[in-house]
């Protein structure tokens, strides 16, 4: 009789425990959709690999179209060398290819090679600076700033010619210097960020001689990858009196991919036109677009670490600049007030 009572009691206890476990599991499953983040597992505090916030569900909510914190990879920069059609510029592209693009360092490559490497495992990718010559190739009836549903790029220039080197990007806008080519290029770069993970988009003039090794060092030492690169913008400092802001001179400047998206996609062509200086000035206007962002901009003034020579208009000047590339980086004034103030006071500056 006693054994039967114990057995009945045991069965009752086991049944009660099973029922309690079932209720607890059901409650967790039901309430799971209301919790904000997963519990932090103990191993996540001891494993370096799992400390990245991308491993967790509780990363910070991003602003607008910014990416959440957590990615970890080496930074990449699209280098757009601004060029145009014609024999003069064909020749200039040739001696650019023969100088700073011909260092033999596989961390710089043609854009198409970078796209090919993007299909490989992360550790197998070598190229960090994909480059392309940027040419306005639209017909005379095309806008100067891409603002419609037409293709962003074309296969050839306006004369039906394509560079045999395979390193040119033909933008579907009418060729111009000050009125929209740069923002159209930024739209192109922002698209590459989405598809291939470009972290920064840089613009350089074709009369600028670049020290590639110093650029690589700068990227490695000072430019964090997406998404730690939010709202970064840099170049040699200059300033606008009319719009009361600093900006990066057009000889070389760069911005993080989120800013490239902001100036080219989030601002409309009408927005940009309304913001431009009375005398359209490509680099100053770009600074205006960037500093219209509602969040803080991190401006990196490269005046004290300038890794390029500019301007080098002729082939002789360009090659001389290349021979003296070992004298870089250059160290200048953070802002050239000696030049800016007299220009502003005389009404000649912007």
Topology:
Blueprint: H1 2-31, E1 77-82, H2 87-97, E2 108-110, H3 111-117, E3 129-136, E4 153-154, E5 168-171, H4 181-196, E6 200-205, E7 209-210, H5 212-222, E8 232-240, E9 245-256, H6 257-266, H7 269-275, H8 282-291, E10 298-301, E11 308-309, H9 315-323, H10 337-346
How would you characterize this protein structure?
By secondary structure, this protein is α/β, with parallel strands linked by helices. It has a single domain, classed as Spore Coat Polysaccharide Biosynthesis Protein SpsA, Chain A. Helices cover 35% and strands 17% of the residues. The chain is built from ten helices and eleven strands. The strands form two sheets. Strands 1, 2, 3, 4, 5, 6, 8, 9 and 10 form a nine-stranded mixed beta sheet that branches. It has a two-stranded antiparallel ribbon with strand order 7-11. The chain is globular, with a radius of gyration of 27 Å. The chain starts with a helix and ends with a helix.
Cα distance spanning the termini = 104 Å
The CATH architecture would be Alpha-Beta Complex
| Spans where pLDDT lies below 50 across 5 or more residues | 30-62
Whole-angstrom Rg: 27 Å
In this structure, how is the largest beta sheet organized?
9 strands, mixed
Count the strands?
11
Count the DSSP helices. 10
């Amino acid at each position: 009789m006693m054994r039967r009572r114990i057995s009945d009691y045991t069965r009752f206890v086991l049944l009660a425990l099973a029922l309690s476990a079932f209720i607890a599991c059901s409650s967790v499953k039901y309430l799971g959709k209301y919790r904000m983040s997963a519990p932090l597992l103990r191993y996540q505090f001891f494993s370096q690999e799992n400390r990245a916030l991308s491993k967790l569900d509780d990363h910070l909510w991003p602003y607008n179209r910014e990416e959440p914190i957590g990615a970890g990879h080496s930074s990449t920069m699209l280098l757009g060398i601004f060029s145009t059609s014609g024999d003069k510029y064909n020749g200039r592209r040739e001696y650019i290819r023969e100088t700073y693009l011909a260092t033999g360092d596989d961390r710089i490559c043609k854009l198409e090679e970078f796209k090919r490497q993007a299909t490989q495992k992360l550790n197998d990718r070598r190229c960090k600076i994909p480059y392309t010559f940027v040419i306005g190739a639209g017909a005379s009836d095309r806008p100067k700033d891409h603002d419609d549903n037409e293709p962003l790029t074309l296969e050839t220039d306006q004369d039906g010619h394509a560079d045999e080197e395979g390193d040119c990007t033909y933008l579907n806008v009418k060729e111009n210097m000050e009125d929209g080519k740069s923002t159209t290029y930024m739209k192109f770069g922002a698209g590459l960020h989405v598809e291939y993970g470009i972290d920064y988009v840089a613009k350089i003039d074709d009369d600028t001689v670049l020290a590639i090794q110093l650029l690589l060092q700068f990227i490695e030492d000072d430019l964090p990858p997406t998404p730690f690169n939010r709202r970064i913008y840099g170049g040699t400092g200059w300033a606008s009196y009319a719009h009361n802001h600093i900006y990066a001179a057009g000889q070389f400047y760069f911005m993080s991919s989120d800013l490239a998206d902001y100036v080219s996609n989030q601002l409309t062509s009408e927005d940009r036109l309304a913001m431009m200086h009375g005398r359209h000035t490509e680099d100053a206007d770009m600074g205006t677009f960037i500093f219209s962002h509602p969040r803080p901009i991190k401006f990196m003034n490269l005046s004290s670490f300038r890794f390029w020579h500019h301007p080098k208009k002729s082939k002789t000047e360009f090659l001389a600049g290349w021979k003296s590339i070992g004298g870089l980086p250059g160290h200048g004034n953070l802002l050239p007030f000696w030049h800016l103030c007299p220009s502003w006071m005389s009404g000649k500056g912007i």
